[in-house]
């Protein structure tokens, strides 16, 4: 079910405050913020960015990432060891979880252990454990130096949960109604409809970069799951929602004219076309390069998203990720170059449909993609245009849309089941290269390595960059790696994973954190004309 068009919720049902916020408006006390989101995850907490959006409402983190600066949150101070493999945090002494459990060093240790047991990718933060130094001092340990450990810990996946709830509640309870110290408490999750959050009236632990300290201004937050972008847009127009996610790209200009618009490019890697380098035709670099030259990626991003989502040529890092290097011009749109590369690779024959052949075999590639989970309907339009453009140089591209159940069940994920992958990975560090290009083993495969890339020499260079103590030299090493991956066309970017919010004019101070673009509603308040 989507947002019920008949259930109009009051967006400012409290009394007006006596203190005006400006000459034109007055703050309204209380009220209910209604937000229309796109995707409904299986749990409120977990490793998917869709879960981090929700986790941010309920959990606080040790620190906050603020446009490159680390700000205090549950931790008031921190220091890193000489070998850069340990960070010691000093905690606030006045914070309690909403079940009454005090926040202390043991609570943080319990959470680190929980992450290590339940987050499959936590190893990529290089965390190995934690020790309580005293009641309010805790040390986190890593297997490698990790300069981005702070902004990683700031994201919603590493929110701090009540150790009492983790220990005493069932897995289902901690999935649906986890307990944090944050500004909102889960009231009820109505599957297929939304989650009702109620204000934590005792909230006293906002991050240092929050717009205010203390409990949320609004009394309730109603988070609706509305899969259709047109319905989300309509709910904003009719006043049934106060803020909505990802409106139709055709309405982008209107939204910028008539509403407040927040636009955040996620860290990590963009929506990228990743080639199977271990099996099939794209083991040949010339074919990967030819495919890329055949696609007018800049024009596709502009035509499909109309400015709401930017083009990104770098297939390995998005532009908000530390250490990012623009490499847009490495493999530009050039169908003639694509034809030359395909000819040189021996794909000179043609079948009756015009597809290239070699030794009687058609040049064909399968591209499965998660429609409705990883890829939006606009993203699906983009890959359909890719399909048409590569056909013009003789490449047959088979698009295989996957349902969310298929996507997260691992359909078409194995090496022999696809030639191209399409998707993003949110991560606030250039170590995303290690996440997406680490080879893994037969016993412990790396499912994030959709290129099935296996080059020990390059992998060693990624780790060398990770370990580099000098910031400028570290940036140089990561830049060299990005150029190499782009020239090799292991993965090429198409557009950035972008979190867009359109907000009604009578709702002020909604903001997005600068680590994952997570929406923050605890500082938001309604206004009415004075």
From TrEMBL:
Gene Ontology, cellular component aspect: ATP-binding cassette (ABC) transporter complex; cell envelope; periplasmic space
Domain of life: Bacteria
One Pfam family of this chain: SBP_bac_5
Keywords assigned: Signal, Transport
Segments forming domain Solute-binding protein family: 69-431
Entry keyword Transferase: no
Protein name according to UniProt: ABC transporter substrate-binding protein
Organism: Nocardia speluncae
